[in-house]
């Protein structure tokens, strides 16, 4: 699967043509219950279903996926893209909770290589997260070039020094979590070889969107990707320092370094952990 290609096709989509195959429709009414913009109408149970104002369609696919007889003909969602869900293969609640218990911000990255197939699964998981009105404007960009990662780290260090200098000039050097001493300390540690910025990760995922709900959409995508990474035995860490520098620094510069054009909403560090936590603490 190639999520980026699917996304590009969606952003350039045309208005859907939607019809009901009356020969196969069993008039169960499921499509009328799941459609967010309510374009399927049924006067009462077991009566014919009609399509009302198809231009409202957001291409979510709920109708096609719920129809038991493949009776909905949707021009933007052909049935060759529809796949059967095997509910017998779902993780049990206990297995899912075990995964959630194990998921931590494990910063003990090694220099072992992450397989491309793992990156693909992590990114695909992110693209399956919901977005507001199915806008699908979240883009997930993978960075794994060492020079590019070094540029990201240098950007954060330079921005933090600028922020610290500005705090001192405005006489608020000791205010807040990100105070001048903390920012300068992070840069000093990174300069001396302790990577306090990227934590020595081997790759970064950048979640971007210009949609009004972009930050929420990207956070949902981030969580999906994070859980898939955990399932694959890959450690993931939310790079708050990078986002703080982006918020307070030259945003266009970081976007150019990362090769993105939309607003950066979340950044994830990825790497193979040196060890796994053997316990979890109740919350």
From TrEMBL:
The keyword Membrane appears for this protein: no
Superkingdom per UniProt: Bacteria
UniProt keyword annotations, A-Z: Flavoprotein, FMN, Iron, Iron-sulfur, Metal-binding, Oxidoreductase
Cofactor: FMN
Protein's UniProt keywords contain Cytoplasm: no
InterPro entries per UniProt: 4Fe4S_Fe-S-bd (IPR017896), 4Fe4S_Fe_S_CS (IPR017900), Nitroreductase (IPR029479), Nitroreductase-like (IPR000415)
Pfam families in the cross-refs: Fer4_10 (PF13237), Nitroreductase (PF00881)
Domain 4Fe-4S ferredoxin-type span(s) in chain numbering: 16-45, 47-77
SUPFAM superfamilies hit by this protein: 4Fe-4S ferredoxins, FMN-dependent nitroreductase-like
UniProt record similarity statement: Belongs to the nitroreductase family.
Protein name: 4Fe-4S ferredoxin-type domain-containing protein
Organism: Segatella bryantii (Prevotella bryantii)
